Amino acid sequence: MKYLNIRTGRFISRPNRFIAHVDIDGREEVVHVKNTGRCREIFIPGTEVALEESDNPNRKTRFDLVGAKKEGIGWINVDSQAPNKVVKEWLAESLEAKEIFPGVTYIKPEYTFGKSRVDFYMEGEGRKILMEIKGVTLEREKIGYFPDAPTERGVKHLDELTEASKQGYECWIGFVIQMEGVDVVYPNETTHPEFKTAMDRAIEAGVGVIYLGCSVTPEELKIDRVKIYKK
Q: Is residue 161 domain-shared with residue 114, that is, in the same domain?
């Protein structure tokens, strides 16, 4: 996926989850942050950030903060809407995706199962596939971690996949790694032990894990490396 009208600036502060103050060419500007996670390891004063300028003249904020540059890693995409978009492109266009999900002829985003909406439902050659997507922006020593803040919603999604797997669906959780140099993701047990417990239950029930590594620039996010784990 690609962004239009990208500018860069320097991060100043983040008063709350939704906005940040950024220096753009010597002018302090309030911008919208497209990620409600903590991102404390990313949003450090002086960090170079990528901003997409809106074409809506009526918006209160002129820019969306979509990326930040981290020492030793490079650009990290922090747009929480990007993982689903880039996976949708990958499923439609990638030969690797077609090898992992051969024969799929139907893809439906936002599929309701139980009391949750699962990000993707797919059908083909008798297979019924559910895949939930999680974006990963937290990195320590070239290992990704999820979540960066407690997520009861994430636990609920894993429990729904566990149940679906028991009912005969082929189920996957996909971690979109929104940075380069990181190829695997661990549950962030320190921040949210319940998520790790739910993930262990899901894997035991047959839920597979797909690690979707990305190439990242201020203007583009693209899946370019894939690893799979299925018990």
A: yes
Collapsing DSSP to helix, strand or coil, 91 comes out as helix
29 secondary structure, DSSP code: E
- Give the phi and the psi of residue 41 in degrees, each rounded to 5: -75, -10
Q: Which residues, 6+ apart, have CB-to-CB distance to 164 below 8 Å?
A: 113, 114, 118, 130, 171
Residues 151 and 60 in one domain: no
Q: How many CB atoms lie within 10 A of CB 81?
A: 13
Give the predicted TM-score (pTM) of the model.
0.95
Give me the percent of the chain exceeding a pLDDT of 70.
100
Number of domains composing the chain: 2
Tokens of 144: 């990704």
Q: In this predicted model, what pLDDT tens digit does every residue of 8-21 receive, in sequence order?
A: 999 999 999 999 99
Mean pLDDT score of the chain, rounded to an integer?
96
Note the pLDDT tens digit of each residue in 30-70. Answer: 999 999 889 999 999 999 999 999 988 889 999 999 999 99
Q: How does strand 19-24 pair with strand 6-13?
A: antiparallel
d(CA 49, CA 113) in angstroms, rounded, equals 37
Task: Please check whether residues 121 and 215 belong to one and the same domain.
Answer: yes
Q: What CATH number is associated with residue 38? A: 2.40.50.580
Q: Which domain holds residue 176?
A: 82-229
